[in-house]
Each structure stands twice: as structure tokens, then as C-alpha cells.
Amino acid sequence: LLCPVSNLCGKCRPRDTDLLQPSLNFLYWSLHQTTPCSQQRAVAVLLSNVSLLELLQKVLECTWLWSPTSRPAYLSSEDALLCSGWLLVASLLLYQHRYNTEVHQTLSVDLKEVLNAVIFRNKKPILLLVSIMQFLRAVLRQNFSSSLLVIVGLNTAPSSTQPQPSSLQDTALHPLAMQQVFSLVVSLQNLLVHKDLLLSQAVVACLETLVEYLYVKNQDVALHVASQPWHRFLLFTILSGGQKSFLQPEVLRLMTLFVRYQSNNIISQKEISQIIQEAAEANIAELPEATSCALHLFLSQV
User: Fold this and answer.
1) What's a GO biological-process term for it (predicted)?
2) Is 268 left (phi over 0), alpha (psi -120 to 50) or beta?
3) Cα–Cα distance, 94 to 252 (Å, whole number)
4) Rg for the chain (alpha carbons), in Å?
5) What is the average per-residue pLDDT within 114-133?
């Protein structure tokens, strides 16, 4: 089915949302719900379909072309299509890198537009934000160097015989700039305050990947970002309400992040002991799988 469905997508226009959205969902599902052997073949089939990739390019561009003021409060068919497009591209980036699959057509994405979508939100629905963050995680994990993707809107260090400290940091973090990093971190913090479960999971995952990327590029910057005092205020804002609020997957993952990067001003021995105490009192067998996994990672990190 992959061949006829992907061929059908390649014959559509972005405005054919009723046909395209379920078709892209089927392609996404096919990538994620199959065996590793079949998955490798599925990636090869999709990446060899030039018309499909050209269609995906147009869908991604519609994210910036379709006016946000025209978006209703609910998830419109256009926004649903954009979500499917970003999620599918993020998956293709992941699996193309994993299997080193041959690429017949590259995709081009403006990095500034992607960052601004998260930083300014601009009336974008939560599910679309989550989808774009999944894409951002994929490119961060690959150090912006995927053979499937061409990144435009890159930052270039200012030419000077004596570069300033800020420009030296920008060069180390290329293609990101320090200002973009801090704007992105603040925006992710603000999104966490919404206490939407899906959004919180995506934001914490994006924050984890961002700090990992920064740590490889410049350890001082990564540790500085991870130890921002605002994180502690954010943590207790999330924890407000609920006796067992420490045993939330997103809270545990945040705590794990702070322990990993030794942010002692954010998480103290007192909070660590409190989490262990709550875990000891809980019925581990009855915890949701996401919570169990997050708790395991936290305890391993401690």
C-alpha cells in the first residue's frame, strides 16, 4: 500500500486536505508500526518518491503562508494537514539517518521560521506546535547535518579581526545563535506553564535535546542554560496541586535533566529525597508506563 498511497500524495496539492491528511497519517503510521526490517524498506520507498517529497516541501511552506489570523479555535483541516506533514518529515529524518537511506530529493526548511514558530507561537494550535517541536528535535539530534534536509536562514558569525565573546559563542553553537537559544528556552518554559499533558511532554523532550546539543557544542553554555534560576520557579509552578505531583513523567524528566547537568541551584538533595520517598510509598506496578520509565531514568541518573 505504501507505493500507491505515496504516489497518490504526490499527485495532490496542499489544499487537498481531505485526501492528503489521512494519506500522510497512513504513511506516518506505516513507518512507526512495522518491524525494523520492513521499516528500512518503507523508508527507502518513501524517500525514492520525488513527487511525495516535493509535496511535503509545499506542505511545510504552507505553515508560514497560511495566515494565523484565519485559524479557528479548534484544529482546522489545514492545521491537521500541517501536523501530519511535520511529523512525517521528522520521522523521515530520523529513519533516513538510522538506515543511511539514499536520498533522491532534499527538503529545504528555514531555521528562523521554525524557531520563531516555537518562540512566538503566533496563535498556532498546540498540536501543530508539538509537531514542529518534534521536527526541531530531529534536526538538533542530527546536528543540523541531515542529507535529507537543507537548512536555510543560517546564522553567520560577523566578520571582524577581533571577534567579540558573543560572536565566538555564536560560532560554537552554529547554526544557532546565543540569543535564539535563550529565546527558545524562555518560550519552552512558558509553554510548560500551560500544564497541557501533550504539550508538556513535547516541551520537556525538546528541552532535553536542546541541552544535549549545547553540551556537545559548548559545555559552559549548556550548564548555564540548565542552571537558570527561573527553572526552579517553573518547577514549583508545575508542581502546584496534587499530593503525588512529583511522580509526573514530565516533572521526573525535568528533574533528571537538572541532576544530569548538576544544576544544584534548581534541584536540591531535599527534592531528590522527596521523589524517592514518594516512589517508595507508591504502588510501582500501578504507575503508568510513562511514569515508570521516567522514574527509572531519574533513579539511574541519581
Assistant:
1) meiosis I
2) beta
3) 25
4) 21
5) 92
- What pLDDT does residue 239 have? 81
H helices present in 193-248, as ranges: 197-217, 219-226, 230-238
Q: 3-class SS at 214?
A: helix
Task: Using the structure block, give the residue that is written with the C-alpha cell 510509598.
Answer: 281
Long-range contact set of residues 279-286: C-beta below 8 Å, sequence gap at least 24: 279/247, 282/244, 282/247
Decide: 258 and 266 in contact? Cβ < 8 Å. Answer: yes
Question: E strands of the chain, at which residues?
Answer: 107-110, 149-152
What is the identity of the amino acid at 125?
A: P
Contact partners, residue 165, CB within 8 Å, separation at least 6: none
- Beta strand 149-152 with 107-110: parallel, antiparallel or unpaired? parallel
Extract the C-alpha cell encoding 200. Answer: 508538556
Distance CA 140, CA 169 (A): 17
**Triad 206, 132, 85: Cα angle to 5°:** 140
Amino acid sitting at position 292: S
Residue count of the chain? 302
Place of cell 558569525: 157
Beta bridge partners of 235: none
206 touches 158 (CB < 8 A): no
Which amino acid is residue 215, in one-letter code?
Answer: Y
| Residue 121 binned pLDDT confidence (cut-offs 50, 70, 90) | confident
pLDDT tens digits, 261-288: 988 889 989 989 999 999 999 998 899 9
Peptide bond preceding 68 in cis form (omega within 30 of 0): no
Closest CA to 175 of 204, 207, 146: 146
Instruction: With both helix axes pointing from N to C terminus, report the angle between 230-238 and 178-192 in degrees, rounded to the nearest 10.
Output: 20
Q: At what angle do helices 36-47 and 2-10 cross, to 10 degrees?
A: 30
